[in-house]
Structure prediction request, 313 residues.
Amino acid sequence: MEKTQFVEDITQSAPVNSLFLIKRADLRSKRGEQFAHLTLADRTGIIEAKIYGEKAAELPRIIQTGRVYPITGTGRANQNGEIHVFSDSPETVKGIIAGPLTLTPGQEIEFVYTPAALNANSLEIQKIIGSIKNIDLKLFVACCLDARFYECPAAIRRHHEYTGGLCEHSLETVKIALSLIDIMPRTDINRDMVIAGAVLHDIGKIFCFDKIGYGYVPNDTYNLIEHITMGIMHIDEYKNLISDDQLLQLRHIIQSHHGSYGDVIPLTAEAWLVHEADSGSSLLRSIVDDLAETPAGQKKKGLRSEKFLWHAV
Prediction:
């Protein structure tokens, strides 16, 4: 079966009959009726789907997330004007139960959604790391990164939830932080430490996602340990490359980057700066992505930002 329809093509009342990657699958209920709630994706975007009918409740248990399945249904708008796929067709359930499809070589690019400029982001963040003046700290940061840093998403359902999202978010965080240093006079801030902390603040997330099929799926580490603990454990593996004071500063930045929402509150200027830059990147990205799904001239509560937003005409 060829992919002939994409997420960007799905509108109100439009028939849906195509292949989609299933990122997530949950069992939900409404008015006492259970249904499978799926998150579908292809190279043009992400869309939710609600599958009703006999045996639909079994789907979340048997679906292999990160794999491609045939989906039939209809585009339908909810009360906020957001389009999702609705299906009560037995054919959809049968198609999913039959199992995921095997793609032909090269076909997987049709199902990987990422608006991030993967190569450009990788080169830019490496250039910024290269600007660290302290040789030991520069080597330390480089050693902490691997291919997963450039490929993993930064989150699920929130901000930067796509391939390359972690690198893009980290790049935005370090650029926001450095721009604040540049525009503020009379600041005595360790620029090298800000770069290192901003690049590594979410490094623990490389352990929180597994690449399954053609997508990334949160694993047990994501749910049971979380990325902050994993990040500190990870940088400790390279602690012999830097001084004890530098390691302590970086541990504090990682541990406190959630600000008042975390267990540790930032106490240094560098930690506060990384926290604010991190918040700015994650919040603005979620707002911008929510607005992209909001009809012009309308107000609605964004699913990612959880804030009421107005899309100006």
In short: The first helix runs from residue 59 to 62. Residues 54 and 90 are 7 Å apart (CA to CA). The chain has a mean pLDDT of 93. The longest strand covers residues 15-30.
